[in-house]
Amino acid sequence: MDFLNGLVAFLNFVFVPGLAYGAQLAIGALGVTLIYGILRFSNFAHGDTMAFGTMVTIAFTYLFQNLGLSLGPLPTALLALPFGIAGTALLLLGTDRLIYKFYRQQKAAPVILVIVSMGVMFVMNGIVRFLIGTEDRSFLDGERFIISARAFKEMTGLQEGLAIRTSQGLTVLTAVVVVALLFWFLNKTRTGKSMRAFSDNEDLALLSGINPERVVMVTWLIVACLATIAGVLYGLDKSFKPFTYFQLLLPIFASAIVGGLGNPLGAIAGGFVIAFSEVTITYAWKKVLGYWLPESLAPDSLVQLMSTDYKFAVSFAILIIVLLFRPTGLFKGQSV
Amino acid sequence: MSDNPYQDTRGNKDASIAKQGARGTSEGGDREGRATPAPSGPFLIGENMTGGYGKGPDILHGCTIAVEKGEIAVIVGPNGAGKSTAMKAVFGMLNLRGGSVRLDGEDITALSPQDRVVKGMGFVPQNNNIFTSLTVEENLEMGAFIRRDDFRDTMTQIYDLFPILKEKRFQAAGELSGGQRQQVAVGRALMTQPKVLMLDEPTAGVSPIVMDELFDRIIEVARTGIPILMVEQNARQALEIADHGYVLVQGSNGHTGTGKELLANPEVRASFLGG
């Protein structure tokens, strides 16, 4: 019984949050890895793109709530999501037209584009803060839990409860659908294959009649979808705050690099590696270990390896370790 | 590399922020001109081509290359003569400063490379001529990218021409041997059913046996009626199968003639064919 209680506590405090966070990072990292694979630079503006998409989604969520539209038990944000994606797509295509296109025509070195994306990041960051403000806001409505801790306790008679929030279930489900769709698109459709071909060999893609500008446009559209979905899921699960999204850049890049930049499968694996490392290292294990260890060994302290304030240090440490010992990432960094 | 400050990498070799490796070097991808009618003349001709890469010095100096229907034309010459550059110029991958390119009665100088593919030109570059991370079949499919009709027949034909490709069609093209890669490269270019095929050193880096086989295949392709314009290191072997030969010297035409004439020309023999 103690073992089961410990297991449930583990699932409740480590596994389920880690899974949801991992899925959010994975979708974010997929966007980063796609841009790296196809446009050949690390897009530092990705976190703020996510913030922008979430902001538009929040605006439409409030609008729909005022109009009395809802999805019943599901959050209204899902209804607003397509509008968020459309808004982000317009922003990204506009940015590309106005800024990145010039550098493409100059055949600028990718490292220049990295710095350009940093400039774009500051501008987007400013736009988001200017429009929606800097404070924390929650836009989750509908049913809060799929299973609440109390319901679980009553059902099983265990001391520990397992709560699964709607946002967590939704995150994992959406991640599975998004990833499946993306892989289907990249591997089975004509446009998807042409994107992989362009990523592999730009000149030869040109010789095959693949229009580079079209590939770039489709890439931005997909990135708009991925960034907005990742941002909205993160916002539903936690809350929306522009600065947090800016900070998300680190774990997202860590995920993409750990998995092998340019490799979509790696981005997903990396997302979960980073998420579970962060959660397990910053979790206070006293409760779980209290159940699992014999009484004589039960810990007195919290058994928290690091305070949650240091969670970014975890992604950073993993990033450095991977870059030192396996610079191509867990999966061999290959083209998209 | 060039004077453009945007192209300066500032020594960055960090693959974790910028993807290294084969970047597009082709120019003219954003060219938006149209073809204009220009009747008469050979089927494909790059006439009086002058130009170089980017803002760099001229590499081609009034170079002319042509191929007629049903013929094989071969470009030979010493290293650095501008053979590959001439091919790229004909395909629009560098911006010409003078001269014109005409195909099938149309002036296509203002067309981008991708538009020339649509016009019926197929090009197999010397390096990086396959998509290494894609499977053999996907390589062929990408070759047929511009085709909206059913291209399964063409694919079958290419598998008949290169049976080894059919065996390996679900394998990544990057895992194949040098000779097999060249077959993928030629197959990819044939997928558009081009009106003219341009090959830049198709036998570079393959063993002599494979080379003979590749030459046989190229002749086989030519027999189907597709004119072939080819750059070749193995000058003697190439000139033997050539209807037309061009010897390039420092970016301009040194000698021109039929393959046999060039083989018999004492000057050409002395300088390029080793006596």
- Largest interface, by Cβ-Cβ below 8 angstroms: which chains and how many residues each? A-B, 44 and 44 residues
- Rg of chain A: 21 Å
Beta-strand share of residues of chain A: under 5%
* Average pLDDT reading of chain A: 91
Strand ordering within the main sheet of chain B: 7-8-9-4-10-11
Major beta sheet summary of chain B: 6 strands, mixed
Count of DSSP H/I helices of chain A? 14
The helicity of chain B comes to: 25-40%
CATH class of the domain at 31-120 and 240-275 in chain B: Alpha Beta
Q: Which structural class do you get from the secondary structure elements of chain A?
A: mainly alpha
Strand content of chain B: 15-25%
Number of strands of chain B: 11
Return residue spans of chain B where pLDDT drops below 50 for at least 5 consecutive residues. Answer: none
- What order do the helices and strands of chain B follow? EEEEHEEHEHHHHEHEHEEHH
Mean pLDDT across every amino acid position of chain B: 87
Describe the sheet with the most strands of chain A.
2 strands, antiparallel
In short, what is this structure?
By secondary structure, chain A is mostly helical.
Descriptive account of the structure:
- The complex is a heterodimer of chains A (336) and B (275).
- Chain A is mostly helical.
- Chain A has a domain at 20-246.
- Chain A is 73% helix and 1% strand.
- Chain A contains 14 helices and two strands, in the order ααααβαβααααααααα.
- Chain A has helices at 2-39, 46-67, 77-105, 110-132, 149-156, 166-188, 190-200, 202-207, 212-237, 242-247, 249-259, 264-282, 286-292, 311-325, and strands at 145-147, 164-165.
- Chain A has a two-stranded antiparallel ribbon.
- The longest helix of chain A has 38 residues, at 2-39.
- Chain B is α/β, with parallel strands linked by helices and 275 residues long.
- Chain B has a domain at 31-120 and 240-275: P-loop containing nucleotide triphosphate hydrolases (Rossmann fold), CATH 3.40.50.
- Chain B is 32% helix and 20% strand.
- Chain B has helices at residues 83-91, 113-118, 136-143, 152-161, 163-167, 178-190, 208-223, 235-241, 259-264, 266-272, and strands at 36-37, 44-51, 60-67, 72-76, 98-103, 106-107, 121-124, 196-200, 228-231, 244-249, 252-257.
- Chain B has a six-stranded mixed β-sheet, with helices on both faces. A five-stranded antiparallel β-sheet of chain B has the order 1-6-5-2-3, covered by helices on one side.
- In chain B, a hairpin with an 8-residue loop joins strand 2 and strand 3.
- In chain B, helix 3 (136-143) runs parallel beside helix 6.
- The radius of gyration of chain B is 19 Å and the shape is globular.
- The termini of chain B are far apart.
- The model of chain B has no long low-confidence stretch (mean pLDDT 87).
- Classes of the chains: A mainly alpha (336), B alpha/beta (275).
